Write a sequence for this structure.
């Protein structure tokens, strides 16, 4: 049930469904969210006099507010390496604090269309490398570290030039190749996110290496457990969880893989408020690479078709992850991941204000509500001919006197639209 209340009555645990003003005039990422902190209430007070809460989704006015995990940036060292990791995480988080303004390290050097051909070559080589690595691990052979570093370096170069090219290619998914392609996609996501976080070239290479190898331990888990369509038994889940320590052990015994890169494998199933596995650390002790790994691994998992579930849309996945901030993920970093992906990520099927249907083919890194959209269907749902692209930032291709906006995101496959037919995939 929706209820109108003054902002002074807001409490953590309430679900804000509507504002007294247009959402686009506010800094909030989503049109509807659960309040998890006093800071969010303060932001609502700065922009609104009253809001509408949905009592079916969150707390009502009268119930006692739920306890919310506080965001702490205090370094808790459990050894020199852990302390260095925590301090690095704090530094990145501080860069994105509201009071801290800085120019981004990277700017796009070329367009998506100019980069897509090279990105396609990089993906082909990386895919081959991943299969070789997994076969080596399965057979107990040594990992080709230099080969892994070479494909990661090529991916870093592509992401620095323009991350949208590899992000477009990330839309090519095959559930029968999930484990291998998941490692590739997680690497792409980690690098795009790391670029957004202004990591250096060296740091991106370390992060990418860790992301590419984060699931090697699954080669020691039986395939019938990995691909089981139903719920795992307690014994099966214990075996599944063993892929983390197995993977860490394999990587630690592999020459040439720095410890900080192994953090992606070590911590990608840990959770910010605890409750993850396999070590049980939480908060800032998960570290920057572990936190990035956890975020991108989760995002790819819930947006991919598996033997036991259908993947959700990117937009819905980001909304869910936003609601999990403070519980599963470091709040500032999951918000920055959403900023990195865009409210309408590449590959999203969207309905425009004209009633036409389009596919997002490129995000806008400064105006997240204004991506480039490939027009697919007319308002009457007939195919667009000839095909054209609208840049919602500049309204190129929109037609005279018409400002086009995204009205809503549609489920994957809506109106029979297959996004990979419209995103730029090169020749």
């Amino acid at each position: 049930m929706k209820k109108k209340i003054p902002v002074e009555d807001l409490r953590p645990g309430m679900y804000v469904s509507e504002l007294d003003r247009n959402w686009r005039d506010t800094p909030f990422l989503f049109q509807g969210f659960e309040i998890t902190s006093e800071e969010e209430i303060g932001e609502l007070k700065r922009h609104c006099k009253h809001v509408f809460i949905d009592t079916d989704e969150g707390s009502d006015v009268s119930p006692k507010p739920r306890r919310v995990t506080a965001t702490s940036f205090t370094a808790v060292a459990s050894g020199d390496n852990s302390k260095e990791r925590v301090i690095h995480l704090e530094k990145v988080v501080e860069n994105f604090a509201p009071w801290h303004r800085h120019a981004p390290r990277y700017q796009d050097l070329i367009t998506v269309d100019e980069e897509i051909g090279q990105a396609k070559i990089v993906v082909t080589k990386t895919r081959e490398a991943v299969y070789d690595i997994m076969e080596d691990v399965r057979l107990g052979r040594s990992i080709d570290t230099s080969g892994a570093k070479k494909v990661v370096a090529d991916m870093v170069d592509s992401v620095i030039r323009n991350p949208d090219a590899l992000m477009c290619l990330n839309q090519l998914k095959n559930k029968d190749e999930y484990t291998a392609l998941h490692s590739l996609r997680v690497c792409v996501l980690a690098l795009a996110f790391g670029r957004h976080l202004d990591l250096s070239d060296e740091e991106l290479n370390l992060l990418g290496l860790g992301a590419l190898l984060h699931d090697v331990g699954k080669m020691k888990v039986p395939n019938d457990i990995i691909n089981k369509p139903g719920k795992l038994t307690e014994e099966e889940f214990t075996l599944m969880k063993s892929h983390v320590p197995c993977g860490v052990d394999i990587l630690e015994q592999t020459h040439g893989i720095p410890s900080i890169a192994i953090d992606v494998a070590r911590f990608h199933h840990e959770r910010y408020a605890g409750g993850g596995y396999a070590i049980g650390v939480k908060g800032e002790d998960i570290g920057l690479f572990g936190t990035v790994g956890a975020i991108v691994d989760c995002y790819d998992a819930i947006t991919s078709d598996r033997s036991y579930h259908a993947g959700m849309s990117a937009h819905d996945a980001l909304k869910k992850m936003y609601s999990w901030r403070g519980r599963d993920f470091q709040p500032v970093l999951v918000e920055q991941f959403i900023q990195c992906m865009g409210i309408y990520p590449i590959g999203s099927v969207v309905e425009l204000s004209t009633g036409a249907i389009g596919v997002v083919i490129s995000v806008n890194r400064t105006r997240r509500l204004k991506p480039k959209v490939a027009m697919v269907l007319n308002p009457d749902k007939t195919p667009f001919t000839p095909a054209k692209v609208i840049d919602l930032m500049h309204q190129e291709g929109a037609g005279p006197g018409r400002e086009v906006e995204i009205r809503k995101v549609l489920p994957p496959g809506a109106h029979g639209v297959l996004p990979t037919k419209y995103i730029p995939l090169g020749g």
Q: What stands out?
A: Confidence is low (pLDDT under 50) at residues 63-84. The chain has three domains: 2-54, 112-341, 349-421. The longest strand covers residues 357-362. The chain is about 40% helix and 10% strand.
